What does this fold into?
Amino acid sequence: MIRYVVAVLLTLALLGLAGLAIDDAAGETTERELRTELAAVEAAAVELEATEELSPAGHPNPQRVVEFSVPTRSLTRAGVDHLEIEPVADDASVARYVLTDGTRGRMLLESRLVYRDPTAARTTEIGWRGTNDVRLVLQPDADGQPVVVVTLSDSR
It folds into this structure.
């Protein structure tokens, strides 16, 4: 009888430790996936600025579309509570995020990304979960200099 009680207690202890390990790994997995998605946006924006020029008036501006996945909460992943990309310099933006497990992080992006209006330094807030398209368009700012403008598609 005592053997069964000890076996049950040992099993419960091991399950508790496994649950803690899964929780810890879930935040790391989500953070790695989110950073990979942000790196894809950064690469597309840098490539857009490096290889394209502003279009003459009346012509479509050069653009790139990136499929962006915001990790959802599951057994092996933490979810994302908040994600934003803020332009902080003439050639840089910073992505800030908060995961559902409380993990906070940020990542420097080597491109100035503004939301919707090329003449304003608006922060892009990504509020969906799952996969959507992020459209990056090269447009002139108030001084006529090229800037990458972010627009977000509707939820799929």
Q: What stands out?
A: The chain has a mean pLDDT of 89.
